[in-house]
Structure formats: structure tokens, C-alpha cells
Specification:
Layout: H1 7-27, H2 31-48, H3 51-67, H4 71-87, H5 91-109, H6 113-123
Organism: Mantoniella antarctica
Protein name: Anaphase-promoting complex subunit 5
């Protein structure tokens, strides 16, 4: 059976299309457009009261900030998503948030110490 047509279904569909646009902009290297689209998606999802869509928008926003080279700006979004996803037992979103957290941490801390030591040995230092 098909879901009945309603404003909530239409809002979810619209937000999913917006998320896809943000990812398309990100893949095309249009990071400013990706961030603007993700931020608008987040505001729309939150104002519509759509919890799951808001969490997906939070993930998209964190991913666009990370792709734009702003890991410190992505961090609060990823932390908020991880906390909310854990509380709501949304394991897939929580896992995605943890990946963004790890990528942000790595981006802010530079290469791991083992890589640095190996790189120094390779240069003869």
C-alpha cells in the first residue's frame, strides 16, 4: 500500500531532495552551495518538527563543513548528532556521526604519530 499524500510526506520528500542537492554540490566541489543548501535543509526540517529529517540534515551539514576544510565547525554538529542518535537508538545515524567525528579529529590533529615517525625515517631524519 502506498502512503497517503500529506503535508508531512511532502515535507520529507522535499527535504530528501534538498539533501541530495547538497551532496551533489559537495561532489562537484561547490562547497559554498553545499553548505547553504545543507543549512537551509536543517532549518526547514527543524521548523517542520521532523526529528529524523533534522538529524539527517545535521549529518549533511557536518559533512559539508568537513569537506570545506572546517573540521572544527563540523565537530559540534557531529557531536550533537551522535548524542541525539544514541538517545533515539538510530544506530546508522550514530555510526555516521562517529565517522564524521573521527575524520574531524584527524583533520585537526594532523597525521597520526606512527605515520610521522615512518615519514621521518624515510627522509633520513
Amino acid at each position: 500500500a502506498l502512503a497517503p499524500s500529506s503535508a508531512a510526506v511532502d515535507a520529507e520528500s522535499h527535504l530528501e531532495v534538498s539533501r541530495a542537492f547538497a551532496h551533489a554540490h559537495m561532489l562537484a566541489g561547490r562547497l559554498t552551495h553545499a553548505h547553504i543548501t545543507a543549512a537551509a535543509q536543517f532549518v526547514a526540517a527543524q521548523s517542520s518538527g521532523l526529528t529524523h529529517a533534522t538529524l539527517r540534515a545535521t549529518l549533511t551539514l557536518a559533512e559539508t563543513l568537513l569537506a570545506a576544510g572546517a573540521p572544527a565547525a563540523a565537530l559540534p554538529h557531529a557531536l550533537a548528532l551522535e548524542h541525539a542518535a544514541a538517545a533515539l537508538r538510530l544506530d546508522a545515524l550514530r555510526a555516521a556521526a562517529i565517522v564524521v567525528l573521527a575524520e574531524a579529529w584527524l583533520a585537526m590533529s594532523g597525521p597520526p604519530p606512527a605515520w610521522q615517525q615512518q615519514h621521518r625515517r624515510g627522509r633520513g631524519a
